[in-house]
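Input structure tokens:
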């Protein structure tokens, strides 16, 4: 079914229907009569001045209407934004972190601890970590070139040793910048990746097939993870 279009109906009325043609002719006749009347009453100069004033008035009304419309749109945006902020706060979503924000946090950190099962984020394996642009990988690469330090806690498994070798091939750094702590699988209880930044902030990665997001952990969990990490370093730090 064709979509109803009011503009097309108006065009049809004035260009094709007998009533529209007659109306258009009548409007033209009335306009001519009005022009002759005002010319006799005001003269040619008066009509010109009146026309300019009318155009100025129409333009002023149009600008005022546009400004009011923009103000209304701005007020609606602010109201909707306030509703969104209240929703985020009310549902405990304020600690969610985007990949871009995480990249900023990591770029501004000098000492990073990473608890990971496979190093996938840090060696750029897209099919494992679902990151289309490898945001974390790029940040790690820049940080290592800048001389920042990383400590990785990973399970002691053959595949993970291979991941370490891959890490060494694709990143540029000196030996003192990066440490690897290989932990027995029965003592490694991390399900998804956790990162500690300068001991001041802890973030956990929650991967999914449709989106990648991170969540900021509270101070209690952060301090507990740092304590566990220090104990693991004392026991299992790999000397390579």
């Amino acid at each position: 079914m064709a979509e109803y279009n009011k503009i097309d109906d108006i065009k049809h009325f004035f260009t094709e229907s007998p009533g529209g043609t007659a109306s258009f002719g009548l409007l033209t006749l009335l306009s001519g009569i009005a022009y002759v009347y005002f010319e006799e009453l005001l003269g040619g100069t008066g009509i010109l001045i009146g026309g300019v004033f009318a155009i100025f008035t129409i333009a002023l009304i149009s600008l005022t209407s546009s400004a009011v419309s923009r103000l209304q749109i701005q007020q609606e945006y602010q109201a909707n934004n306030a509703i969104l902020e209240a929703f985020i706060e009310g549902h405990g979503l304020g600690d969610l972190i985007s990949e871009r924000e995480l990249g900023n946090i990591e770029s501004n950190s000098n000492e990073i601890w990473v608890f990971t099962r496979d190093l996938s984020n840090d060696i750029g394996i897209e099919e494992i970590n679902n990151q289309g642009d490898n945001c974390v990988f790029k940040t790690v690469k820049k940080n290592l070139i800048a001389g920042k330090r990383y400590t990785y806690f990973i399970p002691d498994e053959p595949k993970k040793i291979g991941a370490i070798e891959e890490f060494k091939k694709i990143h540029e750094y000196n030996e003192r910048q990066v440490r690897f702590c290989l932990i027995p699988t029965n003592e490694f209880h991390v399900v998804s990746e956790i990162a500690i930044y300068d001991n001041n902030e802890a973030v956990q990665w929650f991967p999914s097939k449709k989106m990648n997001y991170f969540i900021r952990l509270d101070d209690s969990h952060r301090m507990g993870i740092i304590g566990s990490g220090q104990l693991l370093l004392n026991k299992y730090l790999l000397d390579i």
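The first strand starts at residue 96 and ends at 97. The CA atoms of residues 42 and 184 lie 101 Å apart.
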